[in-house]
Amino acid sequence: MKVLVTGGSGFIGAALCHQLVANGYQVRVLDDNSRGSLTRLADIQDQIEFVSGDIRDAKTVQTATEGCQMVWHLAYINGTRFFYERPDEVLEVGIKGAINTIEAAIAAKVNRYILASTSEVYNTPSEIPTPESERIMIPDMTNPRFSYGGGKIASELLTLHYGGTRGLETVIFRPHNIYGANMGFEHVIPELVAKIVKLSDNLTKKSIDLPIQGSGEETRAFCYIDDAVRGILLCGEKGKAGEIYHLGTQKETSIRELIEQLGQILDININIIPGSLRPGGTTRRCPNISKLSQLGYQPQIDLKAGLTHSVKWYVQHLT
After folding, report:
1. Do the strands 112-116 and 70-73 form a parallel or antiparallel pair, or are they unpaired?
2. N or C: which end of the chain has fewer CB within 10 A?
3. Which has the closest alpha carbon to 230: 65, 85, 37, 23?
4. pLDDT for 35 beyond 90
5. Does the pLDDT of residue 280 top 80, yes or no?
6. What does the alpha-carbon distance between residue 90 and residue 48 come to, in Å, rounded to a whole number?
C-alpha cells in the first residue's frame, strides 16, 4: 500500500515513516523541512519517495497525494515559542494544510485519512485522566498561545464534517506529550536538558539552581516516541472511522519529578527555583487511553528508560 505522510521529516512523522517502511508500506513524504530535517530520514532515504513542498500549496498537495491509498496528516508548526511569536503562520499552516490534504485525499479517492491533533484542544481539562469526550475549548481568543490548539480544533472539524461528509474515511488521534531523541530543543524535556548543561558548565558543576516556569507541581503524562508510533499505527490500521483516540500514557508525572529524574541521569543535584506560569499554561494533563487500549495499545517504555536514551542524545548534540 502506498501512503503519504505530511510532515514526515518532523520528529513524530519521521519515526512513523521508519515504522511504516519496516511494515512494508510504500512511503511518500511531503515536507518543506522548515521545521523538520532530512537527517531524520537519512537511513531510509532510499526506501521512501520525498516530495519537497509547502502544505499550504494546494497543487503541491494534490500532486503528492495522487496514487496513495492512505494519508497521514502530521504537518504543522509545533513548539510553544512559535505559538506566541508566529500565530498567523501557525493558523495558516494548520487550516490551509487541513483543507488542502482533505480535498486532495477526496480527489485521489484514498481509503483512509488520519489526522494528528493535540491534547492542546482541551487547555485545562475538567477530568483527569481525560477522556476523548472532554469539552474542547479556546479560553482566551486574545492570547496567541491558542493559535495552535485553535488550529487543531478547526482541523478536527474539517476532518470530521468536511472530509467525512464527502465520503472520506477519517480517524483522528490526539497525542499527549510525546518525547524522545532528536525532537528539537523547543520542547520541555530538551529545553530542561539544555538549561541544566549550560548552568552546570557542561556538567562540570555537580549542584545548580534551576529557574523554571510554574511551581514544578504541574503534571504531564510523557509518552516515549516508540510507544507513540505503535499507537499511531493502531489508529490508522484498526481505528474506527469517524472516531477520535487519545495517544499517550496514563502515568502522570510532575515537572519537579521530571527534573529530579534528569538530575539523577546527569548526576547533578538540582535546586528548583519556581516562577510564574506563562498565561495559557495548564496545571495538569493526562489522557485516558482506554479507547485506544481496546485496539491493543499498551505503552511499554517507562519514563526512566525513555529519558535515559533521550538525555544521552541531547547531551551529545549540545556539547
Report:
1. parallel
2. C
3. 23
4. no
5. no
6. 27
Q: Which three cell numbers stand for residue 118?
A: 493535540
The C-alpha R_g of the chain, in whole angstroms, comes to 19
Residues in the chain: 319
Q: Residue 267 above 90 pLDDT?
A: yes
- The CATH code for residues 2-178+222-247 is 3.40.50.720
Name the one residue in this structure whose C-alpha cell is 515536507: 31
Name the strand (E) or helix (H) holding 291: helix 290-293
DSSP label of 39 = G
d(CA 62, CA 91): 20
Q: pLDDT for 105-134, tens place per residue?
A: 999 999 999 999 999 999 889 999 999 999
Distances in Å between the alpha carbon of 210 and those of 189, 195, 199, 219, 220?
14, 8, 8, 18, 19
* Cα–Cα distance for residue pair 270/211, rounded to 1 Å: 10
What is the average per-residue pLDDT within 239-260? 98
Which bin fits 314, alpha (ψ -120 to 50), beta or left (φ > 0)? alpha
**CA neighbor of 305 nearest in space, from 251, 261, 242, 257:** 261
What global pTM score does this model have? Answer: 0.96
- Quote the CA–CA distance of 292 and 176 in Å, as a whole number: 13
Q: In 58-141, where does DSSP find H-type helix?
A: 58-65, 80-85, 87-108
The values of phi and psi at residue 172, to 5°, are -120, 135
Question: What CATH topology corresponds to 185-220+252-285+301-316?
Answer: UDP-galactose 4-epimerase; domain 1 (3.90.25)
Whether the bond between 87 and the residue before it is cis, its omega within 30 degrees of 0, is no
Distance of alpha carbon 72 from alpha carbon 116, whole angstroms: 8
